[in-house]
Amino acid sequence: MIIGAGVAGLTLATFLHRSGVECVVLERRDRAYLQTVRQRAGVVDARNVQMFERVGLAEKLLAGPVAQTIDYRTDGISRIFNIIGDDASEGRFCTQQMLVNNLLRVLIDEMGGEVRFEVSDVTVHNEEGTEPQVRYTDSNGAHEITCDYIAGCDADRGVSRASIPDGVLTTVTHEFGYAWLAVLVESPVKGHPVMGVSEHGFVAQLPRGPQRSRYYLQCSLTDGVADWPDQRIWDEVRRRMGDASIENSIVHEKVFVPLRSVVHFPMQHRRLFLAGDAAHLVPPTGAKGMNLALFDVDTLAQALVKALREHDCSALASYSDTILPRLWGYQAFSAWMTDTMHDAGDPSINGNFRQMTARARLDELFNSETAARLHSEYQRGTA
Ligand code: RFL
């Protein structure tokens, strides 16, 4: 049983299906909702492109190449960082929504996989010595499914992690103290994706298709949508980008994202395994949340196949131990990106000392081949 048909749940189901392992996905939303909302991630990193290539799905699921450059703009002055690596290890453009759409098509329409949409009251029963069960309700009434294993892919507010008894999990949290206003707009990135440092706060512009892009603007945790009418957004974008020539365009969506890091571990309890946002959150500054979810389910799918096909449960037993060291590395990278891009900007956040040392860290990316190489490995997901 897989709970949640986001990127993690659908990828896991697709991989298991390909290996001949039966599974059912339960999703509280309907298919149309999944296909039209959740415009979040934009790039599948190189590590995960290689994963989809390995299972022969890259061409079906992913779109074309993505810029291997980042404009680390400081007070309006551009510096173009070239992500180091060969052509064979590049990330690919693919919005999260596009990936979910393609996974739904491949899993359900091409492979005949089973996703039960619009379910409610999902409960997880995972007692020692009995086979796990998942109960849920849909328009046909109440159901109960007995299974071998449960994958909790229902993100931070789902039922899977919440079903684990108190005292089993340790939770480590870090709040960064500010938020982002994420705005989807009807104008493309011209040139390179921008991560912008400015005295007025952080700004980014990242590609989201040939006609659209997403701007991120640092804002206060207490802000709300009403504080950011469209005109204020465009005025701040121009000010923080240091580019008066940017024109207003249509704003499609505004979302507030408090920046925080969270890890719940171990990522397993008896026969329940957590993957993706159900187990960990990273601030979107490093663009790694979806990519970490993909690493989890790659590891979990291989471990489940081994357990069910070869009756070897060793990889399942060490699932959490396999994920966590790499996860902490990417938590550190995401925190580095977040601290550096925000401390280097508005000195009222963390003071002038932190502003200058963060700017020195940014300079290092351009002055040191060693720093540039490590940064590139994290950007590619191959560190
Ligand atoms: P999802 O995608 O949220 O899917 C969870 C699914 O579970 C369902 N669900 C339930 N189903 C049944 N019963 C229940 N009780 C249920 N409760 C929940 C939900 O309806 C949903 O369909 O989690 P998953 O699969 O773990 O995937 C994680 C990613 O979605 C997340 O990490 C990324 O979006 C993070 N993220 C980014 N990641 C990147 O790799 N690169 C990026 O550039 C990037 N940008 C972002 C982001 C996240 C953002 N926000 C909104 C937090 C930008 C933003 C603004």
From TrEMBL:
KW Flavoprotein (keyword) present: yes
Q: List keywords of the entry alphabetically.
A: FAD, Flavoprotein, Oxidoreductase
| Source organism, top-level taxon | Bacteria
Give a single Pfam family match: FAD_binding_3
Example of a GO MF term: 4-hydroxybenzoate 3-monooxygenase activity
| EC identifiers of the protein | 1.14.13.2
Q: Where is the FAD-binding domain?
A: 1-329
Q: Which SUPFAM superfamilies match?
A: FAD-linked reductases, C-terminal domain (SSF54373), FAD/NAD(P)-binding domain (SSF51905)
Which protein is depicted?
4-hydroxybenzoate 3-monooxygenase
Q: What is the lineage of its organism?
A: Bacteria, Pseudomonadati, Pseudomonadota, Betaproteobacteria, Burkholderiales
